[in-house]
Design brief:
This protein is α/β, with parallel strands linked by helices. The protein is built from 20 helices and 11 strands. Strands 1, 2, 3, 4, 5, 6, 7, 8 and 11 form a 9-stranded mixed β-sheet that branches. It has a two-stranded antiparallel ribbon with strand order 9-10.
Amino acid sequence: MRTHKALLAALLIPIGATLAVAPAASSATPPAPPAAAAPGANAARSPKAALDRVAHPLRTTEPRGSLTDLRPFGRMVGDAKVVGLGEATHNSHEFFTVKHRILRYLVEKKGFRAFALEAPWSTGLRLDAYLLRGEGELKQIMDEEFQGSYQFWNNAEYRDLLQWMRAYNVKHPKDPVHFVGDDNGFAGGELYDKVSAYAAAARPELSAKLTELYQGLRPTTDADTYVEDYLSKPLAERKELAERTGRALNMLKQRPGRGTGADARAWAIQHATAIHQMTTMYAFDWDDPQAVPAAMRYRDQVMAQNVAWWQQQTGDKIALSAHNSHVALRTYTARTHPKVQGDFLREQLGRDYLSTGLTFDQGSFNALGQDGAVHRFTVGPSAPGTTEHTLDRVRHRDYMVDLRTAPAPARAWLAEPRTVKNIAATYPWNDNAAQIRLAKTHDIVIHLHRVEAADMLK
């Protein structure tokens, strides 16, 4: 079994997996189904019948073709500025392709201009340069950026999404779509370069001190090796590095620079913030299980802050892709994730943030097994008493429903805690069958009958 430090190299794994990879029997067993209705009870009062009346069918989960079936989703989105798009697994084809469809719709019909992903801030900058100006080669960028912690994003489905974004930008160079990496698992060399370039131009008196504070931090290896090496450092050294990056950030914040505008300063501070977010994340004691919840809370807070910063700095409306348990309005697993990205975003943005959970009944996905290698796993039809068992009996194969306006019988059912699939980058793990109140956790649900494992490229 791998250590906490080695497991951390796969940040996409909910860190409950670092505490006990094998699933606890209690969490894997669905609750007993509710008692049957009394004889003669009105079938219209059942949650299934209520959802039948308000569910809107999806024509397809594939990204191309007509988007008219997504008009109801557009009405649900309303004037929201950030729309969270979840996934019940980290690597299933249909979750990625339906997000591609929704992104197309939001860009073409609702004025959205950014796609955010739980990937490092520096990864976002590199991909954004490709999307805007064609800098680099997409395969090389994906191979270098989506490894180790983020290998599950190196798939054909995201390649197709990025290619669509690039093609859109070629046609609309004055009104492009951007890519945002909101996570803090790595800080690429471009961040140090951008901060140094700003200091040289606007605050030259800081250049030597910044070089000293950042000494030894700028990556000279691939991301996976860098993170493994970083986590092998003693905790005291990691804390000292975080203190240094904090001082560098505070120096930049002290006063405006000369000869540059407020926008340049804001971006330089954000890049320095991203560096500090990484070092702070790795300054937690990952060998102490008691420290894990605070670390996970910090990570979700960072992801929310980065998304909110981009939205407020640029004015872009953002489609935010992450696991259901990150885009949620309430945590799926309070034991290890006390507060999550969607909860922070609702606090920061209010109703300008909208949470969409994506569920499924059965199918397959790629995930890390207990041996640390990637495997394809398959799960059968959902058991009676689980959330998906009822959702899958709605009359449409694939559909979307606004939980905020569902009929009373559905709202009452949705407000009760029930088991839901919560499959992360490692399978199985303690909380792959979490207990949540769906109506309190997401604003919208998109339910898919079946999903298949994504096409990983490397």
